[in-house]
Amino acid sequence: MKTYKFLFSSKWAGYFAVAVVFAIACVALGNWQMNRNNETMANIAKITDNYSAAPVGYQALKSNFDHLDAAKEWTPVTLKGTYLTADQRVVRNRPLNGAPGYEVIVPLKLSNGDTVIIDRGWLPIGNKVPGHPDVVPQPQSGTVTVVARLRPPEPKLDRGAPAGQIASIDLKDYASQLGYPIKTGAYGQLVSESPAAAVNPTPFPAPSIDPGSHLSYALQWVCFGVLAFVGFGYAARMQRRNDEYDTLEAAESGVPVEEVYGRGSPFHPRPRKKVRKPGARPTAEEEEDALLDSQGF
Questions:
Q1: Is there a single domain that holds both residue 125 and residue 145?
Q2: What SS3 state is found at 88?
Q3: How many angstroms separate the CA atoms of 291 and 293, rounded?
Q4: pTM for the full model?
Q5: Considering the domain boundaries, does residue 205 fall inside one?
Q6: Which has more confidence, 240 or 270?
């Protein structure tokens, strides 16, 4: 009976190496998806804990406007001050639910002298002047009480913007356009104002807490890696079974395996020709063949 000795051949070693490389790639991709899943779940937990929490006073979270603690993102904070509407900016390329539009950000000078940036909401694209919203609703003048959620600043984008607009909520770039200091570690995404303006921009929807398909993708990649070895084992089992069948066929018919299927058949390896060294004495079989050839047989 045949064994699995053929696994030590160079051909099967190559098959095994391919299976190992494929499995390693699958595990790496599965680990990448698992890391993305962990990041998503951590973000969902942060949103769940902070988004609907009771507003916190500005003094308790003041340091976060200088450097935002990632764990405090989405936390509502109560602010009291006056909007500096002369320095408001419209942020370009801000889609909402698939619709193109803008956002409007305004400095809010607090009663203690600090100035923070408030994102008051979303505006649709305009029909009057290309690249501009038709109307930018203004907040109430005078002192207002604002509840806003903490959000991190955005990176600077290497693209220009018309006067009165900016490409992203890059607070340091925004600060360079103003004649007074502002807090650049975080900004506030508007929740409510009191007294409320007559017309407001469209409020922001709640952030998504959908975990996505990262976990299922990670499990799929791991399964694919395991299947590589399952397939290798199945192929090896089929090869051994075929070898056993060939041996039984040859034993029953008395015909060598290579002649059962024909010389050069893919079911049997092609035998190598033996090359006789120059000057070597011919074997008895070669002498017999030469004699038969000379007699025309």
A1: yes
A2: coil
A3: 5
A4: 0.69
A5: no
A6: 240
